[in-house]
Fold ABM domain-containing protein.
Amino acid sequence: MTRRTDAHPDLTRPDAAAPFFSTWRVGTPERQRAAVEAIAGTWERRPWPADGLLGYHVYTGRDGATLMHYSQWASEAGYEAFFKTQRQERVDEIDTLVPGIERLVLDRYGRPRSRERAAGDTRVPGLIVTVRIDFEPDAAERRADWIGEVLRALAGDPAGHRGLISAHFHLSKDGTHVLNYAEWESEQAYDAVLAAPGEGIGDGGEQWERVRTYPGVKGFTGTRYQHAVGLLPD
């Protein structure tokens, strides 16, 4: 069966080879809460759909209007089988309970490169921030090198990011972007970084300047979320 959890996912799981992120627009905070409950209830009333699905987590956008979905799959083939045989009945039940949901995008990624939490760090994230970094069409092969630049900058700037618990950089399968899923201690800690020198990215030093001006980067889009519910096999 399926069980709920308040625990955040472990994005470094070695068996989670195919992470998926999707976004829904639901419109209001009240509809966010109703949609989260509809999703959880719909899944709880059914057996866990596949051994290859390791976990499914839903987040409420701080904009009061959106939901983010994060699912960890062992392979893309596992998702495709679920999509063909089990997804639609779940979608239909959720839409009956909360009509008018807009399903905006589903993106597929490879296993991330991470700035993992420090050993012994038991902080529970108070805020999740996703940052989408878009690249020019001819710069897809440079994305991994850009991630390396960010990880080196983070390693050289620990004081400037003391509220950052972890950061996980995902390469999109379509070659268009990188998605950073970052766990922050609190919204206040994240705001402190945005208010510091460096245009909201690092301390304004040379290493962070290379990150900001890296060839092929088109722009950055950040979104704030709260973890709402996790669904796991019982």
User: Anything to note?
Assistant: The longest strand covers residues 217-233. The radius of gyration is 18 Å.
